[in-house]
Amino acid sequence: MILTSCSGNNNKYDAPGTFESEEIIVSSEANGKLLQLDIEEGAYLKSNQVVGLVDTIQLYLKKKQLEASINALTNKVPDIKTQLATIQEQIQTAEREKKRIEALVKEGAATTKQFDDINSQVDLLKKQYLATESSLTITKQGLLSEINPLKIQIQQIKDQINKSIIRNPVDGVVLTRYSKQNEITASGKAIYKIADLSVMTLRAYVSGDQLPQIKLGQTVKVFVDKGEGEQKERSGEIYWVSSKAEFTPKTIQTKDERSNLVYAIKIKVKNDGYIKIGMYGDVKF
Fold it and tell me: Which pLDDT band holds residue 230 (cuts at 50, 70, 90)?
């Protein structure tokens, strides 16, 4: 099939082309049963709109199990400050007694042996404090080393649960639905195809001789078939020009039929709902 101007006079236009839109295939990021899927072909969806849910019960149960394990380990983590407080109090009491006996020794009311005994007691309590602190710290670090990986696993499960919620990525219209509610899905399996049809792209082809007439950001006239040989004029903007020539596509007949190589260009055209993917259009520079 050769694409020509619908008016029958292809010389009126500089380039023919077809309309297209960036299509996005939305796929599942989780494995399981599709408990919810609220999409219909032709329906308009907003960006970030929740449209479906994959079963998360097993993930939820695994998360609860990990939380229980964390709670059990947390209860075993020693309160170092509280447990050392008793020894610290004993040290302070012994220090006060040491000062009292030291004063008595100076007055001749106590023996040096009494002072040596209380001094040894203070040293022993300090060693006990350091040993207990070291032991409790090692115990705490060991328990925390078990807890932290479990917390990471919970974060991973939360991420999986979040990915079980199917959110629409862009504003657009559902073109095709591939899955249905209550079906089993898997990560990477296509659920539906969507495209933003508010702005369409006309992919047209021009000869090398026409390239000097074209520049990015240029406003052009675009004509779309209205039926009965009539065309509706719209405004478009060139936003991409191919840097490489290619052989003329089979469905395209350029203005200069003698040209074997053409350059693709893309033109943005606002769409009021009339333009459909695959429709033909003509361009006037």
Answer: confident
Q: Give Cα 199 distance to the centre of its chain.
A: 25
| Number of neighbours of residue 39 by Cβ within 10 angstroms | 21
What is the rounded distance in angstroms from the CA atom of residue 205 to the CA atom of residue 212? Answer: 14
User: What are the φ and ψ backbone dihedral angles of 254, each rounded to 5 degrees?
Assistant: -75, 170
Dig out the tokens for 144 from the structure.
């925390």
DSSP string spanning 87-116? HHHHHHHHHHHHHHHHHHHHHTSS-HHHHH
User: What tens digit of pLDDT does each residue of 20-52 get?
Assistant: 999 999 999 999 999 999 999 999 999 999 999
Domains annotated for the chain, with CATH where assigned, are 10-21+197-284 (2.40.30.170), 24-55+164-195 (2.40.50.100), 58-162 (1.10.287)
Residue 233 near residue 221, CB atoms below 8 Å: yes
Classified as helix, coil or strand, 237 is strand
Residue 255 gets which letter from DSSP?
A: S
* Residue 249 confidence (pLDDT): 73
Count how many Cα atoms sit within 13 Å of the Cα of residue 213 in the half-sphere of its side chain.
14
Of the chain, the percentage scoring pLDDT greater than 90 comes to 78
Report d(CA 268, CA 141) in Å as an integer. Answer: 61
pLDDT tens track for 49-90: 999 999 999 999 999 999 999 999 999 999 999 999 999 999
Compute the distance between CA of residue 249 and CA of residue 252 in angstroms, rounded to an integer: 5
